[in-house]
Amino acid sequence: MVILTDLLTTLSGLTIFPPRSKERRFLNYVYHEINRDVAAAQVICQRGIAAVGQIASGAPRLAPLLLLINHDTFQGVKKMLFRQLFDRETSTYTYLIADTKAKEAVLVDPVLEQVERDLRLLRELGLTLQFCLETHIHADHITGTDKLRELIGCQGIVPENAQAACADHFIRDGEVLKVGEIEIEAIATLGHTDSHMSYLVNGDRVLTGDSLFIRGCGRTDFQGGDPGTMYDHVTQKLFSLPEETFVYPGHDYKGQTVSTIGEEKRFNPRFAGKDRASFIKLMDNLNLPNPKKISEAVPANERCGRVLTKAYIKSG
Questions:
Q1: Domain ranges for the chain
Q2: What kind and span of H or E run contains 47?
Q3: Considering the entire predicted model, what is its pTM?
Q4: What Cα–Cα distance (Å) separates residue 316 from each residue in 142, 209, 219, 312?
Q5: Is pLDDT of 13 > 80?
Q6: How open is the CA angle 10-11-12, to the nearest 5 degrees?
Q7: DSSP secondary structure letter of residue 140
Q8: Contact, 106 vs 183, CB < 8 A?
Q9: Under 8 Å CB-to-CB from 193, ≥6 apart: which residues?
Q10: What is the mean pLDDT of residues 165-181?
Q11: How many CB atoms lie within 10 A of CB 245?
Q12: Which residues contact 265 (CB under 8 A, 6 or more apart)?
């Protein structure tokens, strides 16, 4: 079954075909027709060829959608559920990724205060949470990993070299984590901290944590951060991915949700037109205040989110 929201996201960002090509015009046509009749499109995504009667009687203009959802480009959409979840207080994105056939799931960067939301969604969708996967040791929020591990027995995974002895596994650069048939490849993107990973999901989208934001990047002035290392890893590792690769950041403060590698290479003011030296100078002179919960968040996250007192929750 194709998840309609994931299909729309894929269509809206797909850039593998030139703008005026017949393939691009076809994709644009399908995208607009879906939005004209979302209900009919949802039936087609759910029932596939069995929905042909619905197409003939109610939405003939959506017939091309049947061809599209069987195209190789969208095979990953069929078996993968991908949800971007948001914590308003810290502007943190959590990502739920699941194999819809195996019913296995991973949460990337869960937030302690959102554990009930995440558990409810897992129950509603009939998913089993296998892993909580961290991009890094966070300074602005406490991870929900410890609470989720306590409640449902999932594993907590952190990047190699992270100061978190509580972790069940330390994921290495280039290692592939499998969730059902979904493949999540770890890409070391140090610089924001000294143990940071981005995650390439099924080869077409990358979760960049705090290494690369939409038109920005994370700070580099604490937790072993280094601007030169960030510049090297973003430009050499992330910017070497195909330009149509979707970029899903760890935070956004302006309501943006997704970009592409090609967009960030061209339009990200932290990197576009900057050499290594100018990037270092820029980052060294940001003079940002510390995250307001850094003194509670970092020690707790080094314990996988275990809170020793309730002061943090009360302060939130």
A1: 4-70, 77-295
A2: helix 38-47
A3: 0.78
A4: 11, 22, 22, 6
A5: no
A6: 95
A7: S
A8: no
A9: 136, 137, 210, 223, 224, 225
A10: 97
A11: 21
A12: 239, 243, 271, 272
Task: Compute CA distances 155 → 128, 166, 169, 183, whole Å.
Answer: 12, 10, 8, 17
Output Rg (C-alpha) for the chain, integer angstroms.
Answer: 20
Band (pLDDT 50/70/90 cuts) for residue 61 is: low
CATH superfamily of the 77-295 domain = Ribonuclease Z/Hydroxyacylglutathione hydrolase-like (3.60.15.10)
Question: Residue 207 is which amino acid?
Answer: L
List Cβ<8 Å contacts ≥24 apart for 298-301.
298/137, 298/138, 298/139, 298/223, 300/142, 300/143, 301/134, 301/137, 301/138, 301/142, 301/143, 301/164
- DSSP reduced 3-state for 286: coil
DSSP letters for 95-144: EEEEETTTTEEEEES-BGGGHHHHHHHHHHHT-EEEEEE-SS--SSS-BS
